């Protein structure tokens, strides 16, 4: 009996709640049900399930009373010791079951009254999306993924200062520095200047690790400045000068990298190095390794 009462209570709680906004559908009752509606009245899912919940609590109490009365009669009408013990067990189980059902509801209500509310009209949560790039507000659209060439853009004094800080940190990498071939494109140029402001930390860290791994000084020849189709602020992509020591290191993974031709690729972990020759893609002004994470 104890299990029956608890099962009725918790089955009433086992109601799926869908996080979607939908208009309640009215339903006309065909027969009166306690706590819900009388015959012919209209109701909806929220009212219906709430009523079933209350009805289940009521049924649990009613069944407990019935079992207590039954066990009481049995206790009084039998002289057998075993019969009296069995009746006492039924009474105890009924009281425990009813107590657990009421206690479960009271505990939830005490913690938060909303825990015992049954609602289907849960409003969808609005999740704000933000985009953060290094160096402040830098252009990020109109390039890569079929978006064309990133146009040149000027840098603010703050962005130029941050670009200098990043260059200094790369240059001070130990034991092998990472250099940048040109000054930043402060006025929005796309040739003869190189930006590193806007490169993600993953790209900067990758360059440092590569320099130490190949035991050579490497030079960044292309960064986030305009004029590229697959570079830009926030994108982990940059170009490197193809010096002999770097080529030798990459050739340990792909022998073609020792004397690379256009399109030669080397994959190390999640980083892909692609060799591009001057003019091969219509934008390159010198041979370089295009690095993309």
From TrEMBL:
<protein>
    <recommendedName>
        <fullName>Peptidase M23 domain-containing protein</fullName>
    </recommendedName>
</protein>
<keyword id="KW-0732">Signal</keyword>
<keyword id="KW-0812">Transmembrane</keyword>
<feature type="transmembrane region" description="Helical">
    <location>
        <begin position="52"/>
        <end position="73"/>
    </location>
</feature>
<dbReference type="Pfam" id="PF18895">
    <property type="entry name" value="T4SS_pilin"/>
</dbReference>
<keyword id="KW-1133">Transmembrane helix</keyword>
<keyword id="KW-0472">Membrane</keyword>
<feature type="signal peptide">
    <location>
        <begin position="1"/>
        <end position="19"/>
    </location>
</feature>
<feature type="transmembrane region" description="Helical">
    <location>
        <begin position="94"/>
        <end position="111"/>
    </location>
</feature>
<dbReference type="InterPro" id="IPR043993">
    <property type="entry name" value="T4SS_pilin"/>
</dbReference>
